[in-house]
Amino acid sequence: MLQSYYFRPLVYYVGFGAAAIFILSYFLPVLFPLGVAGLICLSIAILVDSFLLYGKKQGLLAARHLQERFSNGDENKVQIHLENNYGFSLRCRVIDELPFQLQERSWERYVEVNRDATQDVLYSVTPNERGEYHFGDIQVFVSSPLGIICRKYSFPSGTTVKVYPSFFQMRRYQLLSAANRLQEAGVKRTRRLGHSLEFEQIKEYVRGDDYRTINWKATARRDGLMVNNFTDERSQQIYCVINKGRIMKMPFEGLTLLDYAINASLVLSNVALMRQDKAGLITYAEKLDTFLPADKKASQLNLILESLYKQTTNFLEPDLEKLFAAIRNRITQRSLLVLFTNYESMESLHRDLPSLKRIAHYHLLLIVFFENTELQQLITSEANNTEDIYIKTIAEKYNHEKRLMVKELQMNGISAVLTQPQNLTINAINKYLELKNRQSI
User: Fold this and answer.
1) pTM (2 d.p.)
2) Per-residue pLDDT tens for 8-46?
3) Domain map (residue ranges) of the chain
4) Where in 266-318 does DSSP place strands (E)?
5) What count of Cα atoms within 13 Å lies in the side-chain half-sphere of residue 409?
6) CATH dotted code for 167-191+233-437
7) DSSP assignment, residue 318?
8) Rounded CA Rg of the chain
9) Quick one: CATH architecture of 60-164?
10) Which residues lie closer than 8 Å to 345 by C-beta, 6 or more apart?
11) Cβ neighbour number for residue 302 with a 10 Å cutoff
12) Which residue ranges of the chain lie beneath pLDDT 70?
């Protein structure tokens, strides 16, 4: 009981007031009975409030409700359910022991729960790294309407939640892809060049259909214009290749570039599976870490999710020679390889270019790398002195060099996408759909 028993500030205020009255009573003896009466009233109030709060063994119940897994970089809802079994209203100070990864040291909520009623405390957490997050106990300090003392309730509610790549973002694009409405999320329409090789159906001609697709035999049989309808080729292999080297450790708005690449890979794989393509995954650094063969079975997305969940960066340089050897030996069918990496200088690109050209000789290679948003801020900032002019000039040089890298890759027959981290997913899907429409795979 003593470990859960606390005085409210009012007790100390009254106690200090009584002490002041006793000091003054040395000079004015008439004040002494007033101080004694104050202490007697305080003692009675403490006894009454103690009886009210400790009259029931379990006057308050609390439980935490949350999802089985969290989405990295997104808001995830958490609910604490409070149930008041007392016959009076409670003022509660709720403290939830949050995982250390969130770096939240002073989380608390104040709430009032009516008698024999329930109250929910809702809040959200936004994890910035994947892994296991452990929630501790729930601590609740309750006080009665008298407000003299408070009782501490401790509810053992230890829970471990796994934080996965952003499946919220994946579900959003999944719904849009299923309804063929990806352009509403910023995915642009791409003009189709010619027809794909897969015939889908014969349908009635409607205004706007290409008259070159008219099926004259079906038109003669039905006595009405009929056209052939074609669909994108299916069962093509799409591999997301993720660099886990030192350069992917760079942070942006709380997440590393590796986290952005993982989130985009999950969404891109899901869109590919929705379009009946085969999705696979490769992660590498100084050696090949993960190789998940491309497939379109029902469990493929879960396999990709579980593989991406545990990926971490290190500070070693990636070995593209080993990556090429693995791709050459394990991927026998021509595939689209979407390589998520980053280059900060033309020299680093030239070191990798021979290996990239060898990969592009056997497969369709798409390299996705990142703009340095900090450079953009420096370029757009106002220069007030010579030092600022020098810094802006260097920033513009590096920014221009990024665009030269795109041209260098294109000159060597390698597709490239230069994107800001926050636009990575949309730009990657745009390029995938563009390559599909061009029948480049």
Assistant:
1) 0.71
2) 888 888 889 989 988 898 888 888 888 889 889 989 999
3) 2-54, 60-164, 167-191+233-437, 198-231
4) 278-284, 288-295
5) 28
6) 3.40.50.410
7) P
8) 33
9) Sandwich (2.60)
10) 398, 401
11) 9
12) 1, 171-200, 211, 230-234
